[in-house]
Specification:
Elements (H helix, E strand, L loop, with lengths): L5 H8 L11 E7 L2 E8 L2 E10 L2 E4 L4 H8 L6 E2 L8 E9 L3 E8 L4 E7 L8 H10 L8 E7 L2 E8 L4 E2 H13 L8 H16 L9 E2 L2 H22 L4 H24 L7 E2 L11 E4 L2 E4 L20 H23 L3 H5 L4 H21 L2 H4 L5 H22 L6 H11 L11
Antiparallel strand pairs: 1-2, 2-3, 3-4, 5-9, 6-7, 7-8, 8-10, 9-10, 11-14, 12-13, 14-15
Helix pairs in contact: 4-8, 5-10, 6-7, 6-12, 7-12, 7-13, 8-10, 8-12, 12-13
This protein binds adenosine-5'-diphosphate and magnesium ion (MG).
């Protein structure tokens, strides 16, 4: 094992995809001109190939000749090869997230692709396999998969087709703003429901290892409940170091989590015997790109901080719908923020019956369209739909609190407040549990 020099560490710790952890172990290896940096801490493993030139450190994937080398398989330490795409002549960063960067890349003949490079090494990330499978079916609402590159057996990069468009979230924020101003906004919930039904049908019929169907047992139910218990413990520990005002809010959210968890224990026993399948797994409105009448689902990795569960854990289809319902709540808060020019906390306090009614109608549009479109084989599996949906809306909100806290997005108040409302019976979906 080798240490990393100061310049490399300071570069890595200044990135938005850094690991937010107090103790980090760093390892740097040099292979030819590439510095392979791996930083580990708090259950995460950051990986970045770097180049140091004239005293400056930068990401190797920004370098044309480096990218062409790994795509051609000419760098033994990276496995896989992308000989099905031509020589890359242009690389342009497209988005930078907390755990990955996407680039728009183009060949000299003008063909455009999306290159996603992971900044985490995870052995339960099978996004390449999922995309390859969906792409092989010719689905037109999923990016076409071209190839992927691995590092030490871990997924490092995926190349897919590139879609122009805006996130569905932007669409919903606009639609909420229109509603708040007394006008009717454009609707896309029908199309989302239809596409989701097709996606589930494709995943339901998948026979590969990562998507084999299973059955809900008592042990599955216990695992779902223990996810929530783990999250409560995590939050309780974090709450110790907060100021009094935020601490109160966290404790209130924790009370809701505990109460709804206990209620869920009894109710979701009804789901024993149901079918479990691979679903999208992290279907929020920033994972849908809209362009006119067209719509694309992206990011098939699953939830980044699914602890203590595994991204390979199968779930029931209602969970994707639950994630969308929760995402609609986020877009309402974002609309309130824009309209009123207020802080997140003050905007949340403006959620009233009228806003909740917009959320409910928008959610129902997706649900109705999904249920009307989904094929019989899946529909037959949707016994106890309202119970499952209620539980997943609650469970997804507990995940969101953890995600927003670990990723330090500043949005944790949105799901925390939603959990408090759920206990008060103000969420029409979770109400089914009470
Ligand atoms: N096929 C694509 N075409 C165009 N943009 C994309 C595509 N895939 C991803 N993006 C853009 O990159 C962002 C991050 O990609 P995503 O797969 O969601 O990564 P992450 O796992 O980091 O969320 C998306 O929000 C979207 O803006
Ligand atoms: Mg994403």
């Amino acid at each position: 094992m080798y240490g990393c020099d100061e310049k490399v560490l300071s570069f890595l710790n200044n990135q938005i995809w850094r690991i937010n952890c107090k103790t980090i172990e760093a390892e740097c290896k040099r292979v030819d001109d590439t510095i392979l940096a791996t930083l580990s801490g708090c259950n995460e493993k950051l990986f970045a190939p770097l180049i140091e030139k004239s005293d400056k450190v930068y990401l190797a994937e920004e370098d044309l000749s480096w990218v062409n080398k790994i795509l051609k398989g000419n760098m033994g330490i990276f496995e896989g090869s992308c000989n099905n795409i031509g020589n890359i002549a242009k690389i342009r960063p497209s988005s930078m997230g907390g755990r990955s960067i996407t680039y728009e890349i183009a060949t000299s003949d003008g063909s455009k692709y999306l290159m996603k490079t992971m900044k985490r090494l995870e052995n339960d990330n099978v996004e390449d396999k999922v995309m390859n499978y969906l792409s092989s079916l010719g689905l037109d609402f999923v990016p076409k998969y071209f190839c992927s590159i691995k590092y030490g057996g871990y997924l490092y990069s995926i190349i897919t087709s590139y879609f122009e468009g805006i996130p569905a979230a932007t669409f919903y924020i606009n639609s909420a703003m229109e509603y708040m101003r007394g006008r009717e906004g454009k609707k896309i919930g029908n199309a989302i429901g239809e596409k989701l039904a097709l996606l589930h049908e494709a995943l339901y019929n998948c026979r590969e290892d990562f998507c084999k169907k299973e059955i809900v047992t008592n042990a599955t139910i216990e695992k779902w409940i223990s996810r929530i218990a783990w999250r409560e413990k995590f939050l309780k520990e974090r709450a110790e170091n907060l100021g009094p005002e935020e601490k109160n809010m966290v404790y209130e959210a924790l009370d809701s989590m505990e109460e709804l968890k206990e209620i869920s224990k009894g109710v979701i026993k009804n789901l024993v015997g149901r079918r479990l399948m691979r679903i999208h797994g992290d279907l929020h409105l920033y994972q849908i790109i809209v362009n006119g009448q067209e719509m694309y689902f992206i990011d098939f990795e699953g939830e980044p901080f699914k602890y203590p569960a595994d991204k390979l854990d199968k779930e029931t289809p209602e969970r994707d719908i639950a994630s969308l319902i929760r995402s609609i709540d986020y877009t309402a808060v974002m609309a309130l923020q824009i309209i009123n020019g207020l802080s997140l906390k003050d905007s949340i306090s403006l959620i009233d019956d009228s806003v909740l009614s917009w959320e409910h109608t928008s959610s129902n549009e997706i649900i109705t369209s999904y249920l009307n479109s989904v094929k019989k084989e899946i529909k037959e599996q949707l016994e106890n739909f309202t119970t499952a949906l209620a539980f997943w809306v609650f469970e997804r909100a507990t995940y969101e609190v953890i995600y927003e806290t670990i990723a330090k997005t500043g949005y944790h108040l949105i799901p925390m407040n939603a959990l408090i409302r759920m206990k008060e019976g103000k969420c029409p979906f979770v109400k089914q549990l009470l």
